[in-house]
Amino acid sequence: MSQEPWEIQVLESAYSTKQVTAWLEHIRLPTRYQEYAETPATFPKTYESLKTLMRCQISRFPYENLSVHYSPTHLVDIGPDVLYEKLMGHKGDGRRGRGGYCMELSIFFHHMLRGLGFQVYMTAVRNRGRKDGVPGGEYLGFTHINNIIHLPSGQRYSIDVGFGGDGPTSPLPLNELGDAVQNLGRQEVRLIHDNIPKQKLKEPKLWIYQYRNAPENEWNSFYSFAELEFFQHDFEVLNWWTSAKTLHRWTVLVVRFLREGENVQFSSNPTLPLANDVAIVGKVMLVDNVIKVNLGGKTNIVHSFDSEEGRLEALKKYFGISLAHEEKRSIQGWDKALS
C-alpha cells in the first residue's frame, strides 16, 4: 500500500515535550492514559484515545470571544506561542487559563496532536448563515477551521474542538456511510460527502457537517469543507477578517462543555473520578447578560446580571476566567459593555 505524500513527512509541533506534558496534565485525562504524560509521542493512536483527547479538550477550554470585547485591540492573535500562554494560564500571578474562538482552539489542539505524534492537518470551513440560531441559506466564505486526522488503522476523522455549543463531542468519520453519531442529549450529528448548492464543479465533493436535535427530525447542515490542507499563514489571513468582522461581535459569548460528574459552577480543583471514559453531558453558556445551562435537554436561564461587575463575577464563577485589569477596562465605551 502506497503512503500518502504528507504521511512520510515529519510534522513538528510548535510546542515542546514539556508543554505537551503540561497540557496532558491540565486536561485531566482518565487514569489509563496518565502513563503517557511523560512520553507523549507514545500516546495510543486509536479512535478511543482520540475521542478521549477531544472530550478532555472541549470540557477544559471553553469556546469564548472575550478577546474582541475585552482587549485593547479588539482583535485576536492566533500565534501558537500566544495561544499557549492564553489557554494554559500565567503561572505566578494567580490567573487561570482562558479559552478562545475556533481558530485559537483548533490551532492549539492541532499542535498538541502533533506533539503526541498524530498525523494531522488543518483545513478551512465554510459556515452557513443563521436566523434565530438556525443555519440556512448560502454557505459563506471561510471563517471556521477543523482538523483532519489519519490513524494508523487507515481511518480518517474530522475533529472540531472550536464550534461552540453546536459542535460535535466526538470525532466524526470521513467515510461514505454518513452514520449518525450521538451528540449531546438526543441530538445526532454526522458528515455526509456531497455537493453544496453553489458548486459549479461537482468534483471534488465536500464534507458537510449536519445535525438533527432528535432522531425523528430532519437533518440540517451547519458547514462544509474539503480535504485540502491549510497552513498557519492561511489562517492568519482568515483570522484578520473573522476577528474584525464576524466572531459574534454582536454578542459576548462563552461556552463550556460539562463532563459527567462536573458541577455547573467551575471548580479549580475538581473531584471528578478519573474514569476510563469521558462523557459530555451538558454545557453552560454566558450570552451577554445571562447564564444558560443545557444538561442534555432543554436550555434554561439560571443566572442574570446587568453590570460589568456582574458579568466578571459570572465569568469567574461559571468558567474560572479572571481577566486582567487592562482587559476589564478595554470594554469601556464598547457597544457590548454593560452599565
Automatic annotation (TrEMBL):
Entry superkingdom: Eukaryota
InterPro entries, per database record: Arylamine_N-AcTrfase (IPR001447), Arylamine_NAT_domain_sf (IPR053710), Papain-like_cys_pep_sf (IPR038765)
SUPFAM superfamilies (alphabetical): Cysteine proteinases
Pfam families (UniProt xref): Acetyltransf_2 (PF00797)
Gene3D superfamilies: 3.30.2140.20
Family assignment from sequence similarity: Belongs to the arylamine N-acetyltransferase family.
Protein name as annotated: Arylamine N-acetyltransferase
Lineage: Eukaryota, Fungi, Dikarya, Ascomycota, Pezizomycotina
